[in-house]
Fold each of these.
Amino acid sequence: MEPGAALDPLDLKLLQALQLDGRAPFSRIAQVLGVSDQTVARRYRGLRTRARLRVLGVTDENRLGRSSWIVRLRCTPDAAEQLAGALARRPDTSYVSLNSGGTEVMCTMKPRSREARDELLFDRLQRTPRVTSVSAHCVLHPFYGGALGLLNKADALSPDEEAALRPPPVATATGPVALDADDESLLDVLRHDGRATLTELQTATGQSESMVKRRLERLRSTGVLYFDVQHDAELLGHEVEALLWLTVAPASLASVGHILAEHPQVPFAAAVTGQANILAATLHRSAGDLYTYLSEKIGALEGVQSVETALTLRRVKQLSYEPRRTAAP
C-alpha cells in the first residue's frame, strides 16, 4: 500500500480494535476479525509507517486525584514555534498545538502537584519573552475523550466484533489511587510504547514477570491506565481540525456536553473553567463541513450563547513528542 493511500475496511477495524484494547494480542484480534495473525501483524506494521500509528499508555488524572489544565498562550508570531516546541518537551504536557493565525499555542497540562502547576502558570510562562497573554482553564468534567477516542465512533467493527474485543469494565472509583515507584517505572515505559512486551517491561523496570502482570492488571482495572491510538488524522479524511470554545448557560451545561459527546466529529469535549465553559475539539473533511457543523449542529443546541472557533494549524504534540522532521539545507 502506498503512503497516503486511503485506509481500507480491515485497516479501520484494526485501528478500532486497538482503541478498544491497545494491548490486545494480534492472535485475538485476528480470530475476531477472521484473518490470520500474520495479516494483522503486517497491517499493523504498515499502519506504523503510513499512518504513524502508535499505541501509548495514558494515565487518567482523575483516578489519581489530580486535575488537568488547558492553557492558551498568545505570543508574537516569531515566538510560536519555539514556545510550542518547549512545551512539547515537558513531561507534564500531553497535547500541544499551533492555532489560528500562528500566534496562539494551546497545551493540555497534567501537573503532578500544585507546586508544579504554579511554577509553570505563575512563574515560567509569565516571564517567557514575547508571550503576550496566558489563560488557564481547569478541566472540571470530561464528556468525551480519555479512554474514549474518535476511533470508538468509527463503526468499523460489527457489534459482535466490538463486544469480543472490548476489555473488562473498569471498577467504579472509590477514591484516588496511590502509585508507588514500581508503578511509576512501569507507566514511564508504557507512555512511550503501550504494546511493549512483558519481557521489555521486565528489562526496563527490573521487575519480575509476575509482578509486571499484577501491576498491569491493577493499573488497568482501577482505570488509572488506558491506551490511546495516535495516528495521522488526514488518512481518515480529517483535513480540518478546530477547537470550539462554547459559552453555555449553566443550566444547559450537562445537556450540551452530552450531546457533543454523541457527535461523530467530536474526539474531545469537557466542561472547563472560564467564561467559555465548554471546550470541544472537532474534526472535519473541509472548511465547508466545519461551517455546516457550526450552523446546523452547534447552532441548534439550546443554551449555547456564543462560540469561538480556532483552527488547529498543526499538532506539535499528541501524547508524546516527536521533533518535527525538516529537510536538509
Note: The longest helix spans residues 37-50.
Amino acid sequence: MDAIQAQLSSSLAQLKAKLDESPALQKLEEKTHVPKEYIFIGGAFVLTLAFLSGVGTGTLCSVIGFIFPAIKSFAAMESHASNEVTQWLVYWVVYSFFSVIEIFAETLLYWIPFYYRFKLGFLIWAMLPQTRGAKYLYDNFLKDLLKKSESKIDAALKDAKSTAGKGDNGNKKDE
C-alpha cells in the first residue's frame, strides 16, 4: 500500500511540475483554491466520460478540428516557417475536402456507430506533426484528383461568381 501511495505521489508531483508551465491553470488554481493537478485530472475524467458516452463528440471534433489547427496556422504564419505553413495549408485542404464529403454523406454517417470518435481520431492523425497524416492524404490521393479537376473547379467557381452577381437566383430583374 505504501508503494502505491509513493508511486501516486511521485506521479502527481511530475504532473504538477508539467502543469506549472501553464499560466491559465495557475490562475484557475488561484481562483478556485483547488490544486491544478486535480483540476487537470477532473477535466480529463469529464472529457473521457463525455467522449465514451458520445455526448458532445461532434462539438469536440469541431473544436479540435478548428481551434488547434487555427492556432498552429497563425503561429506558423507569424514565425514565417515555410514548412510549417505548408503543413497547415495541406491540413486545411484535406479538412475542407473531408468536410464537403461529410456534408453529402451525412445521412449515412448517422448510422455508423462511434462515427465522431473515428472522426476525432482521423483529425488528430491528420493534424499532428508527428504523423503528418494530412500530407500523406494530400500527396497520395488529393493532389492528383485536384490537379485533374482544376479546370472544372475553376469553371464552377467562375459560374458561381457570375450567378451570384446577378441576384434573384440568377435571373436579372427587369427595371
Note: The chain has two domains: 1-53, 57-161.
